[in-house]
Amino acid sequence: SRSSAFNADSLFGSAADRKLERKERQLCRQVQEAVSEALAGIDDDVLLDVWVCAVEPAPDAGRLAIVVQAPARVSPDEVLERLDKFAGFLRAEVAGAITRKRVPTLTFRVIPSDAEGDL
Question: Which residue of 22, 24, 82, 88 sits 20 to 30 Å from the alpha carbon of 117, by its own alpha carbon?
């Protein structure tokens, strides 16, 4: 019998919710590795120096935001333009690296380098 109106699922999310979150985090890590490796193989002097900071659900695992840091010498807009040019290639590389029926849509967010004063 239930003597309490509270249960662990209502306070902390269900086991299914936690499993989904864990799978999303795992997917984001896999995508971050795949995009990092793919960028390292592109013959582009700007994208070679881009650092993949994070991959985040945007808003869920069907659409992922790839957060990258621009090199100090290049504007974030130029990096975004180049990433958009290679978006199909990057998505294909992700498709080969993950085991899912549907490959997530990739979006890009570029943050400026914070290393400008360190050079």
Answer: 82
Tally the residues of the chain: 119
Using only the alpha carbons of the chain, give its radius of gyration.
18
Bridge partners for 9 per DSSP: none
In whole angstroms, give the CA distance from residue 111 to residue 68: 6
Query: Is 72 in contact with 115 (CB distance < 8 Å)?
Result: yes
**Going residue by residue through the chain (119 aa), what tens digit of pLDDT does each one get?**
444 455 555 566 788 888 888 889 999 999 999 999 999 999 999 999 999 999 999 998 899 999 999 999 999 999 999 999 999 999 999 999 998 888 999 999 999 987 544 43
Are 111 and 76 contacting, i.e. CB atoms less than 8 angstroms apart? yes
Q: Can you tell me the distance from the alpha carbon of 19 to that of 23, in angstroms, rounded to the nearest whole number?
A: 6
Pairing mode, if any, of strands 63-69 and 51-57? antiparallel
